[in-house]
Amino acid sequence: MMRLFRSLCSVLLLLLFPVISSAGDVSAMQVRTVDVSSDIGVFAVSTAGDRIAYGHAGLSVVSLAGDKSDLLFSDRTPLALAWSQQGAQLAAVFQDGEQTQVVVYADSGEALRSYRIDGRVTCLAWTPAADILALAVQLRTFSFGIPLKAQLVHLDPQGSVRNETLFDTTLKKGTVASLGDELYRLYGFDLSPLGDDIVFTRFYDPPVIRRNLKVFLRHLPSGATRLLMELPTEAGSAVWSADSEQVVFSDGQQRTVRFDPWTLTSVRRWDLPGRFLAHSQAGPLLYIDGQLYQDGRLAAQMADGKAAFSRNGQKLIVAGKRQFSIYSFPEAAQSPLSQEQRQRLLTLRTLRAKELVTLDEYQRTRRELMK
User: 343 vs 219, 348, 349, 371, CA distance in Å?
Assistant: First the structure.
């Protein structure tokens, strides 16, 4: 009943206060659906929003232009998917015994190269430099418990693999047995749009205290890592804002928060569990549990499900059981950073990560740089 009441109030707000801004006219949003023949598992939308790769009893790519026919890339079911930032290649994760295979495909479906990684890869992302980052979880069984190692694996286009340990821990045997494959959901990361920071989650299984998730920020060039927040294990994902300055995360129960990872303060809060989160990397659009927010304000009601924006921000895809809901937004005027601005901003962010500038100095210099 309360959920219905909130939905009615949301619709009333939309009727009274249509949302329009320079970041894209949500009121001019177009909606359509694409049906597929199998249940949808993991999925990823291409940079331009013209293709969706999805797992089912195999790996297929459906084009959102033309005849929308599926192209089968593999008869194996992927654990994770990610399109390159240029949109011409797709990385897919497949389990192979105690190892994981990451296969990179051309958009035609041709396998270009592959990597083998010890353990299970839970998620992956492409960097601006066309490297792939993957989070690999390795488990070993001993009489006293189950040691777990989480590694951030760097895969470069030439085929080399470099491992960077994020943390080591030990889990109770009963915990691993009771969670099963759900355990791997508790380890994930999101790469900032600028490509220099990640937020990642770490599962804690103490002997007396309640199990929990801790969210960390890691600056990749320096390795500087800081704890941001402790959450219940039901928590949803953590995602970056478009400017790489704030993080949105949820407790999976009743609260979703936009958070400043440097002042450790909540910027905005929504009374939503945040089971499904997605943030546009091109502007202020944020999807939470079937609701679209623009600049923090409710803009539209949508289908409820796993969601992802295209990198250019012009498409939002929401997955149902056997159907994709596709929301298209008018192209927004953007002022991308010049190469010089980007490099200076990355240098400034490194100084902040190493605590060589104060937060006030950082904000002041950043404002001047962005002019």
Answer: 15, 9, 10, 15
Which tokens hold the place of 170?
Answer: 């030990």
**Inter-CA distances, 235 with 9, 213, 274, Å:** 26, 8, 8
**Under a CB-based contact definition with an 8 Å cutoff, are residues 197 and 204 in contact?**
no
Q: How far apart (Å, rounded) are the C-alpha atoms in residues 227 and 335?
A: 33
CA 234 to CA 206: how far, in whole Å?
Answer: 17
pTM over 0.70: yes
Helices (H) and strands (E) in the chain, counts: 5, 28
DSSP sequence for 146-207: EEEEEEEEEE-TTS-EEEEEEEEEEE-HHHHHHHTTHHHHT--EEE-TTSSEEEEEEEE--S
Question: How many other C-beta atoms are found inside a 10 Å radius of the C-beta of residue 160?
Answer: 10
Residues in a beta bridge with 251: none
Mean pLDDT by 10 residues, the chain (371 residues): 41 34 65 92 95 94 79 95 94 94 96 96 95 96 83 94 94 92 95 97 89 96 96 92 96 95 96 96 94 94 96 95 94 76 96 97 95 82
From CA 343, how far away is CA 337, in angstroms rounded? 9
Q: For residue 335, give every residue at least 6 positions away whose Cβ sits within 8 Å of its Cβ, in sequence order, or none.
A: none
Are residues 349 and 365 in contact, defined by beta-carbon separation less than 8 angstroms? no
Q: Burial level of 320, CB count in 10 A (0-12/13-18/19+)? A: middle
Q: Specify burial of residue 52 (Cβ count, 10 A radius: 0-12, 13-18, 19+).
A: buried
